[in-house]
Amino acid sequence: MPLSPEQLAEIEAQRGQVQPTRRVVAPGMEEHLYTAYPVLDHGFVRVVDYMGDDAAICQAARVSYGKGTKSVQNDEGLIRYLMRHWHSTPFEMCEIKLHVKLPVFVARQWIRHRTANVNEYSARYSILDREFYIPAPEHVAAQSAVNNQGRGAALQGDEAARVLEILKSDSARAYDNYEAMISQDGQEGLARELARMNLPANIYTQWYWKVDLHNLFHFLRLRADAHAQYEIRVYADEISRIVADWVPFAHRAFEDYRMGAVNLSAQMVDSLRRMLRGEEVTQATSGLSAREWREFRDILDAPE
Ligand SMILES: Cc1cc2nc3c(=O)[nH]c(=O)nc-3n(C[C@H](O)[C@H](O)[C@H](O)COP(=O)(O)OP(=O)(O)OC[C@H]3O[C@@H](n4cnc5c(N)ncnc54)[C@H](O)[C@@H]3O)c2cc1C
Q1: If you measure from the C-alpha of residue 36 to the centroid of ligand 1, how many angstroms do you get, rounded to a whole number?
Q2: Which residues participate in dUMP binding (predicted)?
Q3: Residue % of the chain over a pLDDT of 70
């Protein structure tokens, strides 16, 4: 259970408040506002605030005085044109502020995205909760044989059980020691800022994360991708689902021109043209390295 009944009541009370405003509201996003969507075993993502909608992107692109909208079709066409041609600044006019609860090892990947504003829960000031990410059995997987930076099939039988037991018992022991060190019961008690250093990277932290839509799409492109680690990808997938309701035109353009698109080098384009003309192109005649050729073939041979 990621949220206590008190926290859920706070969220519900906030959702019950309605403010009259002259600001733009995105109806799809209003439905999501404040709701905490569970991710992993104790984590969540929730939208705390947002600014702008699809029309705001067009308004900025046209530098207009009013709503900026000519027609719905025009708006979608313009947004797709902007996305296609990397005219990115109009997308920066929309912003989103998220409250995220996530394991520390996921936070370490996430924080590499520097173009956001972050405020994290202070483990110097507060005591961390006894909450650790323990993967579901199907995600306790072996090292990948083909990708040094990935995982293969799920571990089976005794080995899977042993690994899960180690993860659970190490987490519990580390937290017991954390509590014992900070306790002021019959002792002075170690400072929280020091006691935390013994906690494992699967403990949960929380932060507020604010980012504009352009940089959020960059984050989603990298972290909702199949190559991203599962534990961050599930957060990216959840955020992507919310963004689809917030700015449906921009999200569709992002899916088409970023997520679903591929990047071809000059040699790849040349090889493709030659293939379309009926020429048989091999790695040796393509000008591509063996690895590039494999990646190129993966693109061409990908299932529909
Ligand atoms: C699958 C995967 C594997 C990865 N593996 C590793 C790894 O092994 N080791 C590792 O250290 N990292 C790794 N990373 C992290 C990666 O290298 C990036 O740090 C991370 O994805 C953030 O990307 P970014 O810098 O483009 O994003 P942001 O920090 O959000 O920046 C967005 C864009 O703004 C510009 N920008 C931002 N700050 C600066 C700046 N200071 N100077 C110049 N331009 C700037 C750049 O154009 C950048 O692309 C991995 C990421 C992925 C997705």
Answers
A1: 27
A2: 109-112, 120-124, 196, 223
A3: 97
